[in-house]
Write a structure and sequence with these properties.
It is a single chain. This protein has 341 residues and is an alpha/beta fold. It has two domains: 308 residues, TIM Barrel, CATH 3.20.20.100; 31 residues, no CATH class. The protein is 41% helix and 13% strand. The chain has twelve helices and ten strands. The strands form two sheets. An eight-stranded parallel beta sheet has the order 9-8-7-6-5-4-3-10, with helices on one face. The protein has a two-stranded antiparallel ribbon with strand order 1-2. Helix 2 crosses helix 3 and helix 8 packs antiparallel against helix 11. The two termini are 32 Å apart.
């Protein structure tokens, strides 16, 4: 395992992060404490130090498990958790991004995690109600109080993230250093706005869903009841299976599993990308960690890109011909730092 800087910060995190969403059985798809511990230990044995959870994962059990697992090595872990999701039913102020929910949530998370600080505190999702000034000032207060070291944002439009960081820099508040998004070969829409923004603002990107809800493992290509099951997971049946088939072909060429190829493709993207691995068993995590050994050639990357290509959308598709014409005529010394040049 190698390490990367977390966006514009100086903290070093492992090149793969462990997502602890599966720690706990309360929501019906996770695993018990023993298997969760086995996954945690395998990640640590591989050199991983970046672990991501949220207050709502398994109704708080994920944080509780991690608090126990980290007890003897808390300082060695770069711990990330989130707030926004509600933890008290029928309480309208126990959900969203308000300062009230933020403060209630951080205190509850610190208690469950058995720690006195969070390394990276995520806004889990935009709530469309709370003014961005309230969010950024509240997060800055948490940093000033020493309860949080860095802040990030998840599942939020690019223009909101840009507004937030611009405001924070103007006011001298703590700005976001990370962006968490859904990203895989079957869902590349973040390439239109969110990924270029992350590169421009030097945000670390921690993609989730990197195997496309299981579509890219290839298991649905073998399942006779594929059509209905893939559609239930939000994948366009024909397109998703076609992409998975190309992933399978590449995996055979490089002697890897389809999951490893899917993760390797995400890692090969431009910018500070640190994929999140979500595993239900130790064996599954070990398989996914094998993506670190997968080297995809230019031809293989091109084939995967072509199989999963999306429209860039307006205004990009309209402006791209003009950009390409300029590239042929102008030597831009800023090209390396200009998104989409």
């Amino acid at each position: 395992m190698r390490y990367r800087l977390l966006g514009r910060s100086g903290v070093r995190v492992s090149e793969l992060a462990l997502g602890a969403m599966t720690f706990g059985t309360e929501t019906g798809f996770g695993v018990d404490k023993d298997e969760s511990r086995a996954v945690y230990d395998a990640f640590r044995e591989a050199g991983g130090n970046f672990i991501d959870t949220a207050n709502v994962y398994a109704a708080g059990t994920s944080e509780t498990f991690l608090g126990e697992f980290m007890a003897q090595e808390r300082e060695r872990i770069v711990l990330a958790t989130k707030y926004t999701g509600g933890m008290r039913s029928r309480d309208v102020n126990a959900v969203g991004n308000s300062r009230k929910n933020m403060m209630d949530s951080i205190h509850a998370s610190l208690k469950r995690l058995n720690t006195d600080y969070i390394d990276l505190y995520w806004v889990h999702a935009r709530d469309y109600l709370t003014p961005i000034e309230e969010v950024m000032r509240g997060l800055d207060d948490l940093v000033s109080q020493g309860k949080v070291l860095y802040v990030g944002v998840s599942d939020t439009p690019a223009w909101v993230v840009s507004q937030a960081n611009t405001l924070a820099e103007l006011r001298g508040w703590t700005s976001f250093v990370g962006l968490q998004i859904r990203y895989s070969l079957v869902d590349r829409t973040v390439e239109r706005e969110l990924l270029p923004m992350a590169r421009a603002l030097d945000l670390a990107v921690t993609p989730w869903g990197v195997v496309g809800s299981g579509i890219l493992t290839g298991k649905y290509n073998k399942d006779p009841d594929t059509e209905g099951r893939v559609q239930m997971r939000g994948g366009a049946t024909e397109r998703g299976l076609a992409i998975a088939q190309e992933v399978i072909a590449v995996a055979e060429e490089v002697d890897a599993t389809p999951s490893q190829v899917a993760i390797a493709w995400v890692r090969a993207g431009e910018g500070n990308i640190i994929p999140l691995l979500g595993a239900r068993t130790r064996d599954q995590l070990v398989e996914n960690l094998g993506a670190l050994e997968v080297q995809l050639g230019d031809d293989q990357l091109n084939r995967l890109n072509e199989a999963s290509a999306i429209s860039s959308g307006f205004p990009h598709d309209m402006l791209q011909p003009q950009v390409e014409a300029l590239k042929r005529r102008i030597d831009n010394h800023r090209a390396a730092t200009t998104p989409e040049w």
